[in-house]
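Support case: pyridoxal-5'-phosphate complex. Customer-provided input:
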Amino acid sequence: MKYISTRGDRTERGFSDILLEGLAPDGGLYLPTHYPKVDAATLQRWRGLTYAQLAFEILSLYIDDIPAADLRRLVDATYTEAVFGTPQITPLKPLEAGMQLQALSNGPTLAFKDMAMQLLGHLFEYELARRGEQLNILGATSGDTGSAAEYAMRGKQGVRVFMLSPHGRMSPFQQAQMFSLQDANIHNLAVEGVFDDCQDIVKAVSADLDFKRRHKIGTVNSINWARLLAQVVYYFAGYFQATRSNDEQVDFAVPSGNFGNICAGHVARSMGLPIRHLVLATNENNVLDEFFRTGTYRVRGSAETFETSSPSMDISKASNFERFVYDLLGRDGARTQALFGDAVARQGGFTLAPAEFARVAGFGFVSGSSSHADRLATIRDTFQRFGVMIDTHTADGLKVARAHCTPGVPMVVLETALPAKFAETIREALGVDPEPPAALRGIEDLPKRFTVVPPDAAVVQRYIETHTA
Ligand SMILES: *Cc1c(COP(=O)(O)O)cnc(C)c1O
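Agent response - structure generated as follows:
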């Protein structure tokens, strides 16, 4: 399998070449040259596999430059009961008839990003050792992504993580999760500023090409193809649990921000998994819901980007969305370049031609949005009727799922985080505190390891210099 860019550069690259990269050289995102079709006999065989076996089968279709025995070892080391809490890895939890949650957040940081990031940690360590190279990951986080990256990379050979976060602005639980890590290759830099200051520093350091090359600076952002690929697996795993035979269709509802999670669903559907609808749920930051209702994609400015109680979906633009639009447009790289390279950059968005927008239905997407009041009501209702406590992002998904449910078609709502991460809203909805999993109780009291720095890229560069020597 080879990979090409969404913006017209058809140079074919191997999986291992794009694994450690961000954007393609022409500014596009990498996609495989095609999606392998899974035939009925294969789907039947896969139904009986464990999660790790299934992951190996799916990854093998997209990775042909890592020997099979090595890939199997990496996958087996990733998807274990010890890391993800259950033998099924992503079990379903039934709610009302036809409705179930798929638990994706039983990994070390209690959010679905662990599903992909844990694999990425193993893949990075393997590929860096093979090349005899080192990588220094620089990132900015307001919570979820940074901690998932740190827990994936902790103790890995050849990788260091320098994670910037706004000093004193994360929840005590999130801070404790990141700052309690004692691994020598993990560096927490608490920036005296807000999240945007952290992001500006990452941009400034990455724009210093000489520094970037000398210190082997890389990222683990959500546009990484390997992350998306790892997420394809749980759509298959969810489908097999929700059905008895492969002629049944299933709907998936996905709380969405950067369009990474649901893009993996689009890939699974394109491979032939019998998904009827991909139900996209947004919070008040409804960039994507607007697109799927109207055909207009309009990036929001910071004044129009709301801070909500499902903060991991507070986006102004959806960084993975270009991948879907490229497929929607029949993989026309020039047209994708015109929309994302020109129109988004110059006018902050675009409106598809009616004939282009008409194709969306064929890809199974429907959408809706949810508000703070909806989240509270959904969390309350789900707790009262089923005794199940859900987090705010999953509540957005469930609220929109209920509006798009059809009798006879099972609906699987992806649970993207555990309620313990968002205690304040749970208290507001239910009047009680969510219990963190046993292993994380008392984490706030552990010793913390972090360095406070001013919002100054030069200071961060000096810190990296002295800690990579
Ligand atoms: C990242 C995240 C999302 C959004 O996922 P995308 O892949 O960006 O669409 C939703 N919920 C939680 C809890 C997250 O951490």
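The first helix runs from residue 15 to 19.

Case will auto-close in a few days if no follow-up is received.
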